[in-house]
Amino acid sequence: MKTVKWGIIGCGNVTEVKSGPAFNLVDNSKLIAVMRRDADKAADYALRHNIPKWYSNADKLINDKEVNAVYVATPPDSHVEYAIKAIEAGKPVYVEKPMARTYRECKEMVEASKKHNVPIFVAYYRRALPGFLKVKELIDDNQIGKPHTVNIKLFKAPSYEELSKVLPWRVKPEIAGGGHFYDLASHQLDYFDYLFGPVIKVSSLVSNQGGLYTAEDTVSAGFQFENGVIGTGSWCFASSHDSNCDRMEISGESGKITFSCFGFNPIVMDNIAGKSTFRFEKPKHVQQNLIDLVVKAIRGEGDAPSTGETGMRTNWVMKEITKDYYKTLKNK
To answer: What is the rounded (10 degree) CA torsion for 58, 63, 65, 70?
Structure first.
């Protein structure tokens, strides 16, 4: 297609800066329509972002003949419905992360994509950001030797809303698939999939320590990648503010690389040559680089690194980590 003309389903907060404006900033791409169930909010978004069309009904946007690609930016409980409808209409899909609530829903989306020969991409944008590409470059250039282990530590205090029992959808499993682990750890697990390939083995301990909601809030997991790298992770979303931590570390036979997932802190590499620091600023529109690659892929000009297949793998890992917890919860 000459110009990829996008329609957004679900023009909420995530689309205001992170993604929405980027569709008009990459070559051969144009955002021409948005949809939100609240018609007033849809109209307001369209007015503020200078978008010619708005809808309060997703089917009308999907069936708009001028829209030829769809960005699904709703909460995860409706990803599978809207993505498959767009695919069946012959329109490539770019869907927010996590790809869906469950691994099964992801499989349905991928199967629809294959059946109709319509591509689907997932918004794991760290696969296209300069700092995270730098980490990949250091590994590929053998700067720390053969990678042996990765470690993730993400601790985050509850929000004021959670403490007040005003629960966001991100901690409601029926909407999000799980709790903050699904929302945040998905980025980390997906990025390591990008570096090392699929995870093939998982073990875990999962619980709710804070008692603020039913979803998991504390997770400890071990996992092994297909290439042999061993991973461990600790996630707690019921910690104190003093315990907040966002750290990822890759250790190899001759050095290590330490960096953050969400804080855009400097990347630090320690190896036989000493210590090196690499700084990368957070882009204004963090999804722009990935959207550019998605547009190129749709136009047949290259490949995008985050696809339905890779997004589905991340959901599989999260399912394997949390399945015993949710099985026990269901049986209570």
So the answer is: 50
